[in-house]
Records
---
Amino acid sequence: MLRPHLRSVTTDGLNAPITFAAPLSVPSTRRGAASLSLHHFAPKTKNRRVPRSNVAAPDEHRPNRVAIIGGGLAGMATAYHLLNSTARYAKKRAFSHTDLRLTIFDPAEPGSGGASAAAAGLLHPFTPRMKKRVWAPLKSINATVHLVEQAQSCSQQPLIAYPGILRLALHEKQHNDFRIAAHRFPDELELLQPNQVADRFPHLIQNVSAIFLKKAAVVDTPAYLQALWRLCQQSERIEWRRQAVHDVRHILGNDTASFDTVVICAGAAIPTIEGLSHVPLRLCRGQNLLLKPREQSYAHETPVISGKYVVPDLFGHTPGQQIVAGATFEYDYQEDNPETFTQHLCKRDTDRALAELKQPLHDIAPGLIDKCTVHGTSSGTRALPPRSADGSIPIVCKLSGTDRNTSCWLFSGLGSRGVLHHAYLARMLAHAIVAGNERLIPVDARRLQLSLPLSEVERTVAACHG
Ligand SMILES: Cc1cc2nc3c(=O)[nH]c(=O)nc-3n(C[C@H](O)[C@H](O)[C@H](O)COP(=O)(O)OP(=O)(O)OC[C@H]3O[C@@H](n4cnc5c(N)ncnc54)[C@H](O)[C@@H]3O)c2cc1C
């Protein structure tokens, strides 16, 4: 088992001390170098401090029995940080973070539910046009790499690889955008001319330029979540109940059988939970085609994204080779049973995925589908947040409407970038829960005022008292 040497560094806006693993080596993956380093994406700018006047007085409520609804990337990372990164906030409120008892409710097993189980695992900070980075890029990447490093101590196999990612310029405008981007971020991006693309990637479309994201990584998301769960279990303060929660009010309360704190991390299923249909998420199912090349020589070494992606099996799970090609964007998809997003696959799904993906994949890698056998699909539903001027920013907030002895929090809207954003926001959310202070969550993420409506009976009682 790997035992990383730990040292203390400061990363978040409030200068909270957290421990980060020193750079750590894991066995090489079959085709990608898997050396892990926190400093791979070292921040170039100083972190912004939150002015003291912006930090509100904490709530009276102190968390003790915490329920997390949904154990995907959002829920699992929140659990990890509640267990491990909240000591200083608990101490300030005269209790110990080791008093926290956590229960994750999820009908699926760790690493097998929701969009997280279908994620291709691509980790990089750039927008599709490459000229900008997405919201909170460096804090997010560092937090993800840190958490993967922690989880690595509970896994024998590498959980992350650094093969880089290639993005092809399929038209002139893209070429110009990539040229500007390579000039702007020379440490991270390399512009490749058409002859270089042809030499290095002969199986891809020819006569196009490309940009290479030198530091981009791929996370084996299901294996990472399973390892993170094993790590959380070491605390002996957490349990997993394979059970769906359809109404938060059934588990939130002050009696001994209830939870005083509930954190809702059910991804695309959130609008189906009683009282939460108003959460402004746009749902979009994504399917991947799982391909097996017929010829051994037809090998993809480097993940490619150009509208769609083609990602080789860097972690060597499948005998022979597997390529994950995706993903569809199905905005009109209606799920009969939203808890089982990844399980409902049938020929109709594969046909739909093939119909949507065949041409765009051909534009990237001509003949890819013809040279492979489609041996299945995987799917998940993205929960897309409302777009802001800074792009897609996930939703993390405290829900109003609970009494003063309980609290309810929501973490969703990770959209298409959950691997990137989950760990940073989970840490901030865990701090906010234990400090009883929503303002520890980045202001952009808590921009929405959402409530958990009281039941009709409680509403009547509240009105009488009011
Ligand atoms: C095909 C595809 C490819 C993707 N590729 C990438 C990528 O390469 N890089 C990237 O950064 N992001 C990617 N994403 C996005 C990423 O997967 C999501 O942003 C992320 O997984 C969302 O995590 P989550 O925890 O919020 O939700 P989910 O992963 O959906 O987790 C929700 C959990 O809640 C459980 N649940 C549902 N209903 C209930 C209930 N009523 N009670 C209790 N539990 C419940 C589910 O079983 C599930 O485990 C991809 C998404 C898809 C669909």
---
Amino acid sequence: MTVTVIFGSDSGATKAVAVKIAAKTGGRLLSVQKARTADYESCDLLILGCPTYGIGELQSDWDTHIGQLEAADLASCKVALFGTGDQMTYPDSFVDAMGILYDKVVARGAQVVGFTDTFGYDFSASTAFRDGRFVGLALDEDTQSHLTDDRVNAWIGQLP
Ligand SMILES: Cc1cc2nc3c(=O)[nH]c(=O)nc-3n(C[C@H](O)[C@H](O)[C@H](O)COP(=O)(O)O)c2cc1C
């Protein structure tokens, strides 16, 4: 099975997680600046990671290069999402970027895998929260970094 991990990161937290996930899944690691439409399409499992910036917005490199994803045909693709955020400072937009990416990949026909429950998080609202679950793996390197490794390992264990 081929795995591709594509990430954006301003200050390195999401990149560090992406490196770990790529190592554990044997995936190919790509920054969103370098990723082209064919990279999104050419794997069995596509893993996308994005921090949230502004109030509930995509990280700037994701925003700049989102057209490459929007052009991809993901109808035969499984996609798993992870997002980094800060639930204490931004409780009303916690990991919203993951919700934005979810809508983008669903619009391109993807089957999204790797939903997680919200036990252990404390937030008020998130566009990544749908039908009682997160649409991917929510991580908080600002206030819960001690939980990240366990969360990542459990999540990878549930991926197809
Ligand atoms: C200006 C600014 C705005 C942010 N806005 C949000 C937000 O709306 N929601 C959220 O969950 N986290 C928000 N964060 C927290 C970042 O998503 C978090 O620190 C993340 O780990 C950064 O990832 P990076 O190091 O890969 O860039 C914000 C951080 C900054 C500095």
---
Amino acid sequence: TTPVMFDNVKVPVENLLGEIGKGYKVAFSVLDEGRFLLSVAAVGGAKMALQEAIKYANQRKQFKVPLTKFGAIKEKIADMITKIYAGEALNYRLADLYDKEIQKINHDDPDYYVKKQKALEEYSIECSISKIYGSEALDFVVDETVQIFGGYGFIKDYPAERFYRDARINRIFEGTNEINRLLVPGIMLKKAMKNELPLQQSAMAAFEALITPSFDEIDETKKYSVEKNLIKNLKTLYLALSGMAVQKYLDSIKKEEEVLFALADIAINIFALESAVLRADKAQDIVNPNKLPLYDSVVKTVAFECTNNVEIAAKKAAFYIGGDALQSILSGIRRFTKYDANDLLEAKRLLADTAIDQEKYIF
Ligand SMILES: Cc1cc2nc3c(=O)[nH]c(=O)nc-3n(C[C@H](O)[C@H](O)[C@H](O)COP(=O)(O)OP(=O)(O)OC[C@H]3O[C@@H](n4cnc5c(N)ncnc54)[C@H](O)[C@@H]3O)c2cc1C
């Protein structure tokens, strides 16, 4: 990183990029793709850190056994895998969405790049989610890597220290995670205000569903039906709370950053969970059947974690927004975030033991 100074620099007319006065827009749309790429790099870095952590923990002995024999270390490894898998899943999904949009544009079209940029703008929200999730997953993973290295984690001679130091910038550049968190619900609410999204109508129905006690009938013979039903409920929860926020604050919602942050956290965790389930669903037909229990396990650990995160954020949003229906909303939140993570410990141990055995990330 170095300063670059421009002082009275003359730029030939033919070197002009885009239109005069529109550079700001170009710079901002470039950020979308940059955010996504940052996330891909962050998740890649997290895999490398995980691998180093496992290798070290396999050879370091305490109380006469390798660190990887301890349940607490196994749990750290399982939690690291959980975040990496979800980050990777949402990035693959966004790459696919991007590809499909770009394939619609003829490469010989003189406006190819303008059209490409326009198409990618459709996914600004997903790019912000990807940036936040990837950079925070990396931070979690490198932090646990330092911890697994113990005192050596703090010493430059070992790789953990550098992972920790290098990871930190990712939450700051390409738009800080705060600014990206504001964008996630912000863009959606802006579109709703301009009537480009029928948020208010959907939010009303979602609100009714949230405050009306009901029982979900789930066909548990279908793969991941419990998680898919959970995702449906979490989306309803997001819509209901967004609608309540707009109703209370109207246009000044953009200044209510604490509420927007809570909404963003709900959206981020839904997108991560849904992507994780979609990826595991696809894996059923393409991966070696021996590997499928790993997918079942990681779906469970991602669902458990994301649902807990949604519950906390949703309760925060509900208390921030307040109102007469608060108690009904809180019981709706409890109902819609209910997830029976049976055999969670077995799931975590399978993920950790497989990674410890292979000394690497396992998906
Ligand atoms: C190594 C490095 C490389 C970089 N590379 C580039 C590059 O290639 N191109 C480029 O354009 N920039 C680059 N940057 C700049 C980087 O994008 C900015 O540092 C970053 O966007 C944050 O801006 P700032 O430093 O001015 O912090 P500030 O805007 O002063 O923010 C400080 C804190 O306040 C928070 N904050 C600010 N406004 C709000 C708000 N409205 N609501 C809530 N919280 C808010 C921020 O999230 C942050 O936590 C780089 C920075 C570094 C360190």
---
Amino acid sequence: MNQQAPDEHPDVILCPDGPMLLRGEHVIEDEDGKEHSTTRPVSAVCRCGASGIKPWCDGTHKTMRKRPGR
Ligand code: FES
């Protein structure tokens, strides 16, 4: 059962076969240890590895084959 109040939202949302959405200010560390900060209301972090603007999602995941069972 969802106990969240209607005006509350999670800070992190994992999109199936897509990015991780972050709400509010965050600092992301990429695979080289470089930090990327964001202050956008919502930021999308690439989880597929194919983005041309890593660590951020550029929508490339939409062109990739979905995982079986999805
Ligand atoms: S998750 Fe969107 S480009 Fe990787």
